[in-house]
């Protein structure tokens, strides 16, 4: 059996350890798989993803209550398939041992850099983009020659079970395994002695994962979240900007870790911008509750949390506007985009990552004011700037620090295989995608090759005049 189903709490640790030990044994039997083996695993993963695409879309939609198949195609399937294609195309070069520069004083010796698999990689993936955030890291880990163990979110049980079955059908128990279960299983999972652990989820849970991994000195990549700002800068086209911002904000109904969490707008343009947002919302989603293109909020608890955030903002004096004629649909768990005007810093809408179709609007008089606001909080996972003033753009980019940036649009930096994707500070640590994923799951080993005629014997004891002269020469020319 190549996958582990949910087990009762007393059996979790034993069952997980047995699955982990199977992967460890597979790695020990083949510590440095060659190019052909790695390509075969990537091809099998592509075959699996392609074959399960319709079932994946149906399972994810059922887990959410409703999510358009097109969103799964755009955000879960296509990025994984493109990532697989990119990895296969570049894998030979990534694996190549590189000759590195060697200082004159160490010649005729020479340096090389080897990239070696780490061993067994653990991946904890969330419910919001369950295909992308489980299989994106997995393809990077497989490309790097590792064995992989995935724990998907229990909030998406249908997709998790589908993934468990499909991985079991396409990979051996010593190659890649999916384990499914609740929070107890999750806690036991992150306590395993992985060679690297990647977690995608909330900052609060990420801290717990880092603490659990630290007990084993397991290095971690944490892809978290936070309050990602959008800035409407000088020269921004309000209609185009509003359309792109609404499209990014409402993809997956805002249940996206890099969705714009609030927007800063020049004070004199706030009303015009809100009007443009309203037009964009109605253009993209003429209806909400019955619209097959609009995603439901994934759980009743999360839906009620969003409504409570809006109620609290109203009660504390903010102006809350629905940008659609329709109100919230309790039956469908669908919520149209709401903007919050004049939010105060102490409100939860300005303290918590919203993860839904709520967009606070901050008015500013000078872009420096917005820069100070961003820098006063935790470093965000994403930042978005809209405008045509190159000097202002560079000022914003250089005086803030975010995990990644898209200029004059939202979200699209996550799809670039030639760029790293990762957080900074409270929004995460480490990065993957493309070669950065390969390197994250590899040990870059420096190797120095000494030459038979090396003069280092002159530095051996007993120390005397020759040693002093040679060490002085090394300091001058090294």
Entry keywords:
478 residues, 7-stranded mixed β-sheet, 44% helix, 6-stranded mixed β-sheet, Aldehyde Dehydrogenase, Chain A, domain 1, alpha/beta, Aldehyde Dehydrogenase, Chain A, domain 2
Structural class: alpha/beta
Unreliable residue runs? none
Distance between the termini: 58 Å
Beta-strand proportion: 15-25%
Helical proportion, percent range: 40-55%
Identify the CATH architecture of the largest domain: 3-Layer(aba) Sandwich
Can you give a write-up of this model?
The chain has 478 residues and is of the alpha/beta class. It has two domains: 9-224 and 429-443, Aldehyde Dehydrogenase, Chain A, domain 1, CATH 3.40.605.10; 229-422, Aldehyde Dehydrogenase, Chain A, domain 2 (3-Layer(aba) Sandwich). It contains 15 helices and 16 strands. The chain has helices at 9-29, 35-64, 69-95, 132-143, 157-170, 183-190, 203-214, 238-250, 270-284, 300-315, 348-351, 367-376, 390-399, 434-440, 465-477, and strands at residues 98-100, 110-117, 120-124, 147-151, 176-178, 196-200, 220-223, 229-232, 262-266, 319-322, 338-341, 358-364, 382-386, 404-407, 428-429, 442-449. The strands form three sheets. Strands 10-11-12-9-8-13-14 form a seven-stranded mixed beta sheet, with helices on both faces. A six-stranded mixed beta sheet has the order 5-4-3-6-7-15, sandwiched between helices. Strands 1-2-16 form a three-stranded antiparallel beta sheet. Helix 5 (157-170) links the parallel strand 4 and strand 5. It is globular, with a radius of gyration of 26 Å. It starts with 8 loop residues before the first helix and ends with a helix.
């Amino acid at each position: 059996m190549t996958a582990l189903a949910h087990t009762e709490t007393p059996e979790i640790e034993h069952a997980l350890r047995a699955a982990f030990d199977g992967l460890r044994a597979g790695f020990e039997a083949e510590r440095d798989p060659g190019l052909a083996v790695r390509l075969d695993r990537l091809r099998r993963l592509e075959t699996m993803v392609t074959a399960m695409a319709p079932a994946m879309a149906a399972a994810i939609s059922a887990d959410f209550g409703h999510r358009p198949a097109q969103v799964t195609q755009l955000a879960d399937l296509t990025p994984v398939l493109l990532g697989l294609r990119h990895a296969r195309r570049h894998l030979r070069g990534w694996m190549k041992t590189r000759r590195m520069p060697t200082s004159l004083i160490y010649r005729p010796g020479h340096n090389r850099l080897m990239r070696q698999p780490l061993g067994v990689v653990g991946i904890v993936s969330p419910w919001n983009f369950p295909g992308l955030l489980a299989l994106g890291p997995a393809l990077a880990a497989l490309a790097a020659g590792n064995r992989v163990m995935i724990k998907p979110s229990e909030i998406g049980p249908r997709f998790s079970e589908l993934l468990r079955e499909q991985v079991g059908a396409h990979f051996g128990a010593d190659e890649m395994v999916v384990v499914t279960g609740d929070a107890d299983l999750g806690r036991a999972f992150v306590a395993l002695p992985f060679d690297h652990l990647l977690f995608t989820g909330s900052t609060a849970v990420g801290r717990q994962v880092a603490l659990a991994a630290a007990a084993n000195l397991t290095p971690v990549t944490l892809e978290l979240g936070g309050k990602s700002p959008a800035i409407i800068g000088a020269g921004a086209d309000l209609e185009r900007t509003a359309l792109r911002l609404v499209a990014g904000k409402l993809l997956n109904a805002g249940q996206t870790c890099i969705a714009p969490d609030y927007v800063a707008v020049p004070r004199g343009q706030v009303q015009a911008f809100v009007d443009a947002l309203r037009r964009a919302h109605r253009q993209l989603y003429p209806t909400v509750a019955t619209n097959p293109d609009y995603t439901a909020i994934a759980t009743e608890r999360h839906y009620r949390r969003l409504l409570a955030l809006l109620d609290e903002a109203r009660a504390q004096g903010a102006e809350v506007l629905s940008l659609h004629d329709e109100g919230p649909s309790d039956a469908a768990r669908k919520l149209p985009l709401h903007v919050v005007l004049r939010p105060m810093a102490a409100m939860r809408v300005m303290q918590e990552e919203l993860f839904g179709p709520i967009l606070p609007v901050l008015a500013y008089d000078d872009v420096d004011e917005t820069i100070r606001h961003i820098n006063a909080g935790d470093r965000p996972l994403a930042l978005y700037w809209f405008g045509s003033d190159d000097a202002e753009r560079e000022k914003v980019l250089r005086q803030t620090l975010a995990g990644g940036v898209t200029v004059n649009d939202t979200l699209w930096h996550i799809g670039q295989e030639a760029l790293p994707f990762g957080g900074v500070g409270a929004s995460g640590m480490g990065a993957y995608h493309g070669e950065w994923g390969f390197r994250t799951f590899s040990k870059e080993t420096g190797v120095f090759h000494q030459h038979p005629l090396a003069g280092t014997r002159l530095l051996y004891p007993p120390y005397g005049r020759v040693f002093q002269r040679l060490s002085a020469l090394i300091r001058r020319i090294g």
